[in-house]
Amino acid sequence: TDSGLPRYAANLNSPQQEAVLTTEGPVLMLAGAGTGKTAALTARLAHLVAMRKAWPSEILCVTFTNKAAREMRERVGRHIGDAVEGMPWLGTFHSIGAKMLRRHAELVGLQSNYTIIDTDDQLRLLKQLIRDQDLDEKRWPPRQLAGLIDRWKNRGLNPADLDAAENEAFANGRGQEFYTLYQERLKALNACDFGDLLLHMLNILRREPEVLKMYQQRFKYILVDEYQDTNQVQYLWLRLLAQERKNICVVGDDDQSIYSWRGAEVANILRFEKDFPGAKVVKLEQNYRSTPHILAAASGLIDANSQRIGKTLWTQFEGGDQVRVIGVWDAPEEARRVGEEAERLEREGASLDQVALLVRAQYQTREFEDRFIQIGLNYRIIGGFRFYERSEIRDALAYLRVIAQPRDDLAFERIYNQPKRGLGAKTLEKMFQHARATDMPLAAASLQLADSDELPKRAAGTIAALMRDFLRWKELAEQTTPAELLRTVMDECGYTAMLQAEKSAESAGRLENLSELARAMEEYETLGDFLEHVSLVMDNERAGDGEKLTIMTMHAAKGLEFDNVFLPGWEEGVFPSQRSLDEGGLASLEEERRLAYVAITRARKRCTILYAANRRIYGQWTSSIPSRFVAELPDDHVTRETTMTGGASLWQANWSESEDPFAHVSTSRPERSSQRGPGWQRALTSGYDTKQLRLKESTRSAASFAAQPRSDIAVG
Ligand code: ATP
Ligand code: MG
What we know:
By secondary structure, this protein is an alpha/beta fold. 48% of the residues lie in helices and 11% in strands. It is built from 32 helices and 17 strands. The strands form 3 sheets. Strands 9, 10, 11, 12, 13, 14, 15, 16 and 17 form a 9-stranded mixed β-sheet that branches. Strand 2, helix 4 and strand 3 form a beta-alpha-beta unit. The longest helix is centred in the middle third of the chain and has 23 residues, at 457-479. 43% of the residues are buried. The structure holds adenosine-5'-triphosphate and magnesium ion (MG). Magnesium ion (MG) is lined by residues 37-38, 559. Residues 292-559 form the UvrD-like helicase C-terminal domain. Keywords: ATP-binding, DNA-binding, Helicase, Hydrolase, Isomerase, Nucleotide-binding.
């Protein structure tokens, strides 16, 4: 369009332009994925500055991630040049909150040089408090309290605001007391946590009329991306700040609300017109990102959700591939397949930077990382660590290294007090001294030291017990498989119990990672073989610059786009996640479906979905059921293939027609492994029983999906 419009708006379609040019009054852009919401918001920002509607410092612009803020800054910079340097209020809620709070810290009893503590510090603090109050921290884990406090802060609740039910949620009615103690402790340390960055500022805006007025006048314009994922405290903030001028423009998509587990409330976007009467509502329906098949597949899927507004999406693009759904035999084949496809794309001229692998849970990355390293395919992990660098994996490996090689001082040092056994730095120092003096490895020296009276009795006893454990594990290593050894060690050393006690989503993820580590070990005969594999993999991790395939969670991929997207693990219990199935509610399932919608709509040109027929869970082959989302994809836009001959019809069976495609073969349902395994096995397997059928290796072919394993991947 050569409309004489400024450059930043010239290429936009007319509803987008409307959203850009309607500078005054509330504007709501509620539209589907890839329709150019972020693009329009960015143009609006450029427009406000270019038209001198406001100085850059008078615009509040909120993005969901720091990366998104950087990108927006860069794009706006292209249009308005240096002025973008002076945009102090472009960022995430947290970064903006931190900046504001620096200026008003004294109003909440802090100094402006306050520190922002991280999760570790927070947990340590809470632990102290719990101990000080003589509470059993096993019964009332710090992490649980941290989760509660976080939830309260997300909802804008101060200690005094808690109702009876919330108060009851910790230590039999002591929630409020602990929340209060924690806030006092933070104040004494001149510190605050992430939640405080928003809550303190909300308190200030509510209690200090002059401050509120100042910001209401300063922010001539407010812009918010991904509004569907704002939580209560963020919502209250915006409502206060926008109340005076009402020049607030929010954009979002109710179908992409995927953070309710972090307190986000999709209701915020749905009631925008009530909060700001007379709001201009802009609908965008043209998608500029994806091919028609990808778009139709995603739209068809999200149609199954009952709780949605419903939107039309169309595209001018023509042609393009259908979404591919590939059923494979097992996880290694799935990883092999993605590796092959990525290499093929590369050969065809695609850049690896335009290839993404989006997983539901962190533990899923392991199989792919192993494979990519093996074939020399460069990858990066966004928003997390590479599998073997995660702390729980390093801890587990350290135990195994000490067992395999008692002279491994570094490994021993890592875990001598992990999980916590009450051995401090002093003890470690003594152990080191003794090791040096006697020229013995640390572990052996420690054992000898425990026998002397150099150490306090308690420490000596603890070390002796630990060394006895190691001796037993070393014997066990001769008799059992590496994977079995790992499970035993993690249970017996208390690591499993430690994670279970934490009762948080994060610790659940760490348990999943450990379980995945055991799965990786199933393929190795001896502990030595496996450890060698790991050191080779770790050594390989120094992949240089150049193009890289991106691995990340679906959650982290929100707002991004890639030419080629791979989506593995579409099986019941993986995606939708077991947790969402266990919770059982429609709401959690619909949130999983929205996540699937987000995932598919990241793809520009090609989208490949995979599921495996078998997963190894605790050394036991388990047949998995393809995700219900696979069946919900509209047939006209999807090609379905399976690498298993003869099984195709069953794999294509419509999930919704028969709740359990294996119902007819359930005669040989073996005992649940949750009744066998101890500790962490039980904790993890218990979740898998709802929908999954466990088939023993021997019964697998009989129970058959009419498919024979391909000989090259036949399982031994
Ligand atoms: P999501 O819901 O995933 O966040 P979105 O609605 O924010 O998506 P954008 O990321 O802004 O969509 O845009 C998607 C793609 O379409 C981008 O590559 C963008 O450059 C392009 N695009 C946006 N508007 C137009 C337009 N009017 N003409 C051509 N391309 C456009
Ligand atoms: Mg966007």
